[in-house]
Structure formats: structure tokens, C-alpha cells
């Protein structure tokens, strides 16, 4: 791997622990003003100091993140469908490599839709993006998207999807956690990170998901809703970090969350009076 590529990946997956916490705030590209991400700057700003990298679109990057804050950017460059449209898998590359370079991004992210109607187009887009990424030393994060079919999150499907992403040259793959996740990890020759998916019932469940994924061999998370839809997002991202980087157990991380949320609540109360 070339120096530039290695260096960029090391900004996302920290060499000190071999793991990373990526904060996902790209949901608006097909969901519009997602709950608690209605005003992106307000959601993102307090979480920035605790994320190793930030995944988002160029529109939210330019409008809602200060350029003088040194956080590695993972730029979503695929899109083209909305939640009320006909087919979520109908995506294309939406952002040029030139603009990504202008934005000084650390990685490029694109969804693939294995088994869906536009499977072919999404895989060819991944190949094209990897070709461009290789040319300029920018890693590509492939997102194994499932659209509205949440039941697709099983070992068989995710192994297929992750492996295809790696075969196409993705440098990092984002997927979902599932039972027997270590089998998905073993069959994928590039590092895997997990999405959180829709908000779980409580923070404990999301911390358990994080812990199980790390134990099974994931190198980190690319988590959104289970962090910023929590009533205590800063406490939550810190608890997730404690599992990812400090090998906390679920209980230790949850205790930490409970301790931190008291301070977060006091800060909220103080600013609202
Ligand atoms: C979905 O396609 C988006 O790319 C999100 O970045 C991804 O699902 C991770 O966010 P969450 O943890 O909310 O699922």
C-alpha cells in the first residue's frame, strides 16, 4: 500500500489500538431531515471531539462543519434515491474525485446493493471509485446497504456482500452486526466496521452490539442514530469509545455512560435557564 493510502487509513483506524470510532451523519442523503439530525451543526458539533472520523456528504460538510477543526472526513459520494422513491438501490456516484480532493477528505464512501435491482450499477460504481481512489491514494469505504430489508442482516448475506466489496478493492467495509459475525470477519480480507442501524431500545443494547462486534473482530464502528438519537449523545459516544479503544466490558461502558449522563444533563439544564 502506498504511503498516502496507509497514512489516510491510519487517521481512521488508529494505529495505537488498531480500531476506530467513525461518527455517521450522512443519513440525510436519502432520509432528509432525520430525527435529531434536523440541524446538522447542532448535532455534530458537540460530538466532534470524541469521534476519530466523520462520515457525511459534501453538502453537510460545507455548511455544518468548521474547516478549522481537524477531523478526518469520510465523504459519502453515492446517492440518487430517497426513502419515498421507487428503489433505494438506484444509486450512482454523486461527487467527483476532484471535489473530494478539494475538500481534503481522508476516505470516500459508497453503498453497494448486493442482490438488489441495481446491484450491477452499484458494484461497477465501487470499481470506478476504487480505481480513482488508488490513483490519488484515497481509501474507499464500501457500505453494504440493505435498503428497507432489515431482515437481510444475516451471516450468509453479509458474508457475500462484504466479500464482494473486498474483492472489488474496497479498503474498508461497513456492514451490520449479525449472529456468527466472526464468520463474516474471517471471510473478508479487509477490515470491517459496523453500523448501528435504527435506534435500539436503550443505550445498553447499543453498547452490547458494539462490544459483540469488536469481540468478533470488527475494527470499530461507523455509528449514527444510536449515538445522536440518545438523550445523552456525548455520554454515549464516550461509552462507545471506551469499548472500542479501551476494551471496556458492556457493564463498564454502561456504568461510564450512567455516570457521564448526569454531567451532560446538568450542562443541558444550565444552558436552558
Ligand atoms: C446509511 O446508509 C448511512 O450510511 C449510515 O451512515 C449508516 O447506516 C450508519 O449509521 P447508523 O448507525 O445510524 O445505522
Describe this structure in words.
Strands 1-2-3-6-7-8-9-10 form an 8-stranded parallel beta barrel, surrounded by 6 helices. The protein has 273 residues and is α/β, with parallel strands linked by helices. Helix 9 (203-215) packs parallel to helix 11 (233-246), helix 9 packs across helix 12 (250-272) and helix 11 packs antiparallel against helix 12. It is built from 12 helices and 10 strands. The protein has helices spanning 3-12, 28-31, 40-44, 58-64, 97-102, 119-136, 155-167, 181-186, 203-215, 225-228, 233-246, 250-272, and strands spanning 20-24, 53-56, 73-76, 78-79, 92-93, 107-112, 140-144, 172-175, 192-195, 220-223. Helix 4 links the parallel strand 2 and strand 3. 45% of the residues lie in helices and 15% in strands. It starts with a helix and ends with a helix. The protein has a single domain (3-231), classed as Alpha-Beta Barrel (TIM Barrel). Bound molecules: ribose-5-phosphate. Residues 24, 26-27, 55, 143, 145, 195-197, 222-226 line the site of ribose-5-phosphate. The site of ribose-5-phosphate (R5P) has 14 residues, from strand 10 and helix 10.
